[in-house]
Predict the structure.
Amino acid sequence: MPNNSQKEIQNAILKLKEQQNAILLVHNYQRPEIQDIADFLGDSLGLAKQAAQTDADIIVFCGVEFMAETAKILSPEKMVLLPERDADCPMANMVSDEEILEMQKKHPDAKVVSYVNTTASVKAVSDVCCTSSNAVQVVKNIDADKIIFTPDKNLGFWVKRFVDKEMILWDGFCYVHHRITPEDIKKSKQKMPEASVIVHPECRPEVADLADRVESTGGMVKFARETEAKKIIVGTESGILHRLKKESPDKEFYTAGPPRICQNMKKITLESVLKALQKVQYKIEVPEKIAKPAKITLDKMLNFS
Ligand code: 13P
Ligand code: SF4
């Protein structure tokens, strides 16, 4: 429950948002008090779709930089604000456009599938993008038998299980999900053998092996609503538990091992969202020569989804 001062800030945000015809797009890992005032709360794919179709003038993106950049590329005529300048995703910086171009030279018969957790310049030199919820679909549908998959090797390993294609995996990973261990899952299961286990595909393959379902954050919300299980062990960033509990109050949710926190996602606070609207900061800009080809790879992804 937000306290009184949080409520005051929430109200101030809601008022300014209306005056400025702005919307708040919020990722499932954001702080509870930000999730509660979202116009749309979702996973990377859901947020990208909302950004592409909104008629608001301003998008305030509560997530990390690559998500706000994606929104700007998909809706170039809108103003996109990221409330904290340095809220970025470390995995998005694990591969560069130069490295992709080099890989393409080495493997001219391969197509490059890049996770949306990449910079705009990487998207610009890739053949198509994907998110955790459509990666299998995208790799299956892209017209190539050889795929260079960047940057998340764990998502790549997950996709590999479902496609009969040669996949060259980049060596990137998410520091939050990589810390979840098979022991975390086994110990939770020992305590609650009746519980279902859901994990994110950014988790290691040995962790995915122990799960009942491997889902994007949006997929986790849907699974929790629909399952008969009353206890659910969740292997992802712990911010999602707020939404899971709120939308499925009849069920119990537990983190797999200690709560895992993405410090980058948590840089955004109610105060910074308010400041973003008051000072119109921090504007996301993507140079046209990068935004144009990056939009083609994102549009291709949306067409596959
Ligand atoms: P989702 O698209 O599943 O929400 O994942 C985004 C992300 O950054 C996971 O770490
Ligand atoms: Fe990036 Fe991992 Fe944080 Fe997601 S949870 S934003 S992949 S660091």
Q: What stands out?
A: The pocket of iron/sulfur cluster (ligand 2) is lined by residues 64, 89-91, 117, 174-176, 202, 237, 262, 264-265 (CB under 6 Å). The chain has three domains: 4-87+265-285, 92-174+289-303, 180-255. The longest strand covers residues 22-27.
